[in-house]
């Protein structure tokens, strides 16, 4: 197992960094915000807590939560326009710095493609670098389920995305940064996992992550030291 010093060295030499989105790149949990917007906030927030703690499979939790919310296409678009996701302090500067260093930045999320792509645009991350779940709608805009073939729709999916990136781009050092159990599980195949607790602290992640931060400035400082 790599020591903290070795993990920091991997981060400084990373050729790709993958960020979780909900409660990491943005301050909120996208699915909880969508649930509140659709009037079923409390029930869905409880399901999210259980899912993030790793006690139920991700796909089962996602299916159950979306079954309660049943968001229409119009509701999703209205959520993005009326309550756009709030970027976590320091993330814009960190992503800019990584881009300046020639590091590829990816958003790997169990959230929804339409919301995550909105976040990517704010951070100058190409939409091709977004891996997230896709909602499906009928022709009249009513909810029709989600694309269960996406790797991010199931437990272990973020690891599958990282394996795919390594095979496609031959990255030597990929770093995964996130707040939840699904992010920690992605290392390996990620070469380094950094736990993030700037928006919410997940006890399991804080206890098990060798490198745990609460502000993105900590990572900016690591990059400046070189």
TrEMBL record:
It is an enzyme of class 3 (hydrolase). Pathway: Amino-acid biosynthesis; L-serine biosynthesis; L-serine from 3-phospho-D-glycerate: step 3/3. GO terms for molecular function: L-phosphoserine phosphatase activity; magnesium ion binding. Its cofactor is Mg(2+). InterPro entries: HAD-like_SerB, HAD-like_sf, HAD_sf, PSP. Its EC number is 3.1.3.3. One of its GO terms (biological process) is L-serine biosynthetic process. Keywords: Amino-acid biosynthesis, Hydrolase, Magnesium, Metal-binding, Serine biosynthesis. The keyword Hydrolase applies. The active site is at 20 (nucleophile), 22 (proton donor). GO terms for cellular component: cytoplasm. It catalyses: O-phospho-D-serine + H2O = D-serine + phosphate; O-phospho-L-serine + H2O = L-serine + phosphate. Catalyzes the last irreversible step in the biosynthesis of L-serine from carbohydrates, the dephosphorylation of O-phospho-L-serine to L-serine. L-serine can then be used in protein synthesis, to produce other amino acids, in nucleotide metabolism or in glutathione synthesis, or can be racemized to D-serine, a neuromodulator. May also act on O-phospho-D-serine. PANTHER family: PHOSPHOSERINE PHOSPHATASE. Belongs to the HAD-like hydrolase superfamily. SerB family. This is Phosphoserine phosphatase. It comes from Eudromia elegans. The lineage of its organism: Eukaryota, Metazoa, Chordata, Craniata, Vertebrata.
């Amino acid at each position: 197992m790599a020591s903290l010093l070795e993990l920091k060295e991997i981060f400084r030499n990373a050729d790709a960094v993958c960020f979780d989105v909900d409660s990491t790149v943005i301050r909120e949990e996208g699915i909880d915000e969508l649930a509140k917007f659709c009037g079923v906030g409390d029930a869905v927030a409880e399901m999210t807590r259980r899912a993030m703690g790793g006690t139920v499979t991700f796909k089962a939790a996602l299916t159950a939560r979306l079954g309660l919310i049943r968001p229409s296409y119009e509701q999703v678009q209205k959520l993005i326009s009326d309550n756009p996701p709030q970027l976590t302090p320091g993330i814009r500067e960190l992503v800019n710095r990584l881009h300046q260093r020639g590091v590829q930045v990816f958003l790997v999320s169990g959230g929804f493609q339409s919301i995550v792509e909105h976040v990517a645009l704010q951070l100058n991350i190409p939409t091709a670098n977004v891996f997230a779940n896709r909602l499906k709608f009928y022709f009249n805009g009513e909810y029709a389920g989600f694309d269960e073939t996406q790797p991010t729709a199931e437990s272990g999916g973020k690891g599958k995305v990282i394996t795919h990136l390594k095979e496609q781009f031959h990255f030597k050092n990929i770093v995964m940064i996130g707040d939840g159990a699904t992010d920690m599980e992605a290392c390996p195949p990620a070469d380094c996992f950094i736990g993030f607790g700037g928006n919410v602290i997940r006890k399991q992640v804080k206890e098990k992550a060798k490198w745990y931060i609460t502000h993105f400035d900590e990572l900016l400082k690591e990059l400046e030291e070189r």
